[in-house]
Task: structure prediction
Amino acid sequence: MKTKLTILTIPTILVVDDDDAILQVLEARLLSAGLNTLLADRAETALEMLACEPVDIIVSDVRMPGMGGQGLLKEVLANWPHIPIIMLTAHGTISDAVGSIQAGAADYLTKPFDGKELVRRIRAILDGKKSAPTAKVAISKDNGLRGGKAPAMARFLELLERVAHSTVTVLLFGESGTGKEKAAKILHDHSPRAKNPFVVVDCGSTQPTLLESELFGHVKGSFTHALKDKKGLIEEADGGTLFLDEIGNISPEMQTRLLRFLQEGTIRRVGDTRERTLSCRIVAATNANLPLMVKNGDFREDLYYRLKVVTLSIPPLRDRKEDIPILVDGFVEDLCKEQKRPVATITPAAMEKLSGHPWPGNVRELRNTLEAALVFCQGNTIEATDLQIEEPPRDSPAMTNSGLSLENNEKETIIKALKHCNGVKKDAADTLGISRRAIHYKIKKYGIGDPRDE
Result:
């Protein structure tokens, strides 16, 4: 008789406190109690971890630099409501704790507290949670983001699935043709707002003079040709998701108006005096280097940080070549179905040619190439000679391997800072303007070794 094995999942506790000594004490206590721990020394770092790591409970100090514990609580309740949060408050500030409970925290403890009591309360919350696990988001393989055999794409799809169930603001980075709009649609379709509108705004193709009216709407007579009241796209997206494609192209004036909406949740139509309160999830996308634009003064820093609550980078096709056969088979099947013809076959020579190309236009270029090949092929077989593929310019990202990737840029920046500081992490953190906990987390996240060994 075979014995059935039971696999136990060890709960993970995210501890957030700006006091390094408290983080070390809590880490030791929780590890000794058989719990996994993640450590963050500020709320902003904790939010980044939540987007990338599975967490069962959060234990957070109330008063910290930046958005602090109350800001973290607000973001968690809005975007990860399934994760309970225990607030830690200093003696004499019980009002903070009461306010946290009223706002939605699961529990609180007053410092100094007994470590055994914290573990007891964590266990009580874990035991009280529903035994049935939260349903995992099933991201359809027919969404245009096929693949996942390549490690870079598998990681992206894993993060996309983790973020999809929430309503958190997401900033998507990726080169043209990688599928940013499809990723945004997935985030909408699997969120609590899925039954409400998904509205797309192409900030790159809309004239700056018209974008304000398109987004915010206008009232009759507010300008020439304003013959009647018009509802803006933000209003159209009320209760749903607003996808702002090519967000890096909006004017400074529009940046200011968009920031106000993100901060206050209100808009005013062009020419109107009445403000309207709206609620929609924002997913923004760009192929521009927004951090560089912020540094150069071309993009508002406060708007950038409002948009990048969670950032996801879609890898270019040249970094996920293992997925090309999967994409090719899927696109050929789709295209043949659209053209109402039998599914064509791909010769090994044609597949080899497709797999060897750097694809500067990414997935969109691959699909267009296959669509053209179906026109030129004889019979129902695509040969290598049917593929009209041009070599990209030598200075293009596909040839220089210097394409846009927020994670790659961040990793390279950290490596450079470590080399500059002779491997001293504290000095590198100071140079980058981030905390020691943040740099330790990012070093672990990106698998960065000691640069002095290179």
